[in-house]
Amino acid sequence: MAPLLAAPVRGPMEVRLRAQRASGRKLLVPYLTGGLGPWTELIRAMADAGADAIEVGIPFSDPAMDGPVIQQASEQALRQGTTPGSIFAAIRGVDAGVPLVAMTYYNLAFHMGEERFAGELVEAGFSGIILPDAPMEEQGPWRGAADPAGIETVLLAGPVTPDDRLAQVCEQSRGYVYGVNLMGITGERESLGEQGAVLARRMKALTDKPVLMGFGVSTPEQAVEVSREADGAIVGTAVVRRILDGGSPTDLHTFISSIREALDQS
Asked: Could you report the per-residue pLDDT of 171-201, keeping only the tens digit for each?
């Protein structure tokens, strides 16, 4: 097992998110599936509505951590011919004004080759990446390519992550630390319970990096709820469902604006 290589303490995305947090702002990071609908226009709309960064899913044929809504979105995008290359090409023309974070599965990076994949991310304008199926202990080859290229690899932690491992995740994560509110796959939930709040407190005790909570955050009220203990919220399935239902850039702008306003007033 290759050891993780040392990375810059703070990359540009982390510096930006820290500055936003220091201003008193709760961070908002929506997710959408690349290749689905007018997705590049949707990125611009969500950035204009107050997103602090945007996660862009690169569709994969076996998205193990994704719930039925995002799985459907990935399958639809793949049927329409979406590839990593088409995502990279389209992103090059997007000047969102906020950091863009790729979210995909390690097989795509491995198949293309870690160095080439990291280079393509940089050239396309991505700031970071999330590889949910690549355990921290096995990310050595990837981090060996990503860290020197300047791609900030965001790590995830869940409610049952032991204290010693949680400390390592917080130390090794770049950009921000992704806290998973609920065990299981992504999806909208009526109630988030207390697990996320407990996890956020644990992470905040271990790191001063931005701590964002995702999985199940579907409404402005839930975004405010998870942000009480954390630095902000990640909203995915609720965004993707609206896109699958034919939501326009105006519709997504309205939805993200409603969450931004709720966070700003909390």
From this structure: 999 999 999 986 554 544 454 567 889 999 9
Side-chain half-sphere exposure of 131, counting CA atoms within 13 A: 26
Domains, the chain, with CATH or none: 26-151+216-265 (3.20.20.70)
Percent over 90 (pLDDT), the chain? 84
Nearest CA to 175 among 209, 203, 145, 139? Answer: 209
**Any idea which residues carry the catalytic annotation?**
55, 66
CA distances from 18 to 8, 101, 209 (A): 15, 16, 7
Q: Give 87's DSSP letter.
A: H
pTM: 0.92
Give 140: exposed, middle or buried? Use CB within 10 Å, 0-12, 13-18, 19+.
middle
Q: What's the confidence (pLDDT) of residue 9? A: 65
Structure-block tokens of residue 178: 């992704």
Helix and strand counts by DSSP (H, E) for the chain = 12, 8
